[in-house]
Amino acid sequence: MQLISWNIDSLNAALTGSSARALLSRNVIDTIIEYNPEIIAIQETKLPSNGPTKKHFEILKDKFSDYEIVWNSSVEPARKGYAGTMFLYKNYLSPKVTYPVIGAPATMDDEGRIITLEFDDYYLTQVYTPNAGDGLNRLEERQIWDKKYADYLEGLDKEKAVIATGDFNVAHKEIDLAHPDRNRQSAGFTDEERQGFTNLLSRGFTDTFRHIHGDVTGMYTWWAQRAKTSKINNSGWRIDYWLVSNRLVDRIIKSEMIDSGPRQDHTPILLEIDL
Asked: String of b and e for 172-196 (b: at least 16 CB within 10 Å)?
């Protein structure tokens, strides 16, 4: 089974935009289609509270004609057009779909950050983890989120095996970003966030990329848009993950990044697993 996850940074822009960046995003979508994965997880859709528009559906159904689509959008009292997640899965699959509320602080549970697909033998869940914010103004809330989310995954794991993916907004180790020394107090690389991810893994989960590739360096999933040369210089971060329950480790075949060409920001990540 091939699974792909991608933080798209606005589904609307990628599907209907006319900017150079929108065209690059559509090239990435075409690349994903070529892989023909069974399931696609998308984060940061930034859709309205009522989900995709008619135009969005038309484009998605044209490009992904044999997929079902489910989504979770930000709703009041959270910000409109913010965060959000979506799954596309082959129409011969029939998962039970849930939109978990984990008891997160502030409006985080209203921001459309988690969708879970339940199959007979496993759960597949995706997350768009809250960013710690400018000046780390959301770090305390982020730490609570990390604990609540770890509790949630551990609860699933007690029922059946778990595959978890998404933008976790943390570079776990120094080898997961190009410049660790200059980012000690940057959102996504604070000691608190890194420890939160360590705690999550300790609940019985494996970082599939590290399992396959060991301590390889220079392989990232995100390059800052504001720094025009970040991707050219490969000044990136690895903040997008495929995690699995430890008991699925022997089933992992492949875990890698998908080339997104010159487009900066997130690149898709692929998991191939024998289920």
From this structure: bbebbbbeeeebeebbbbbeebbeb
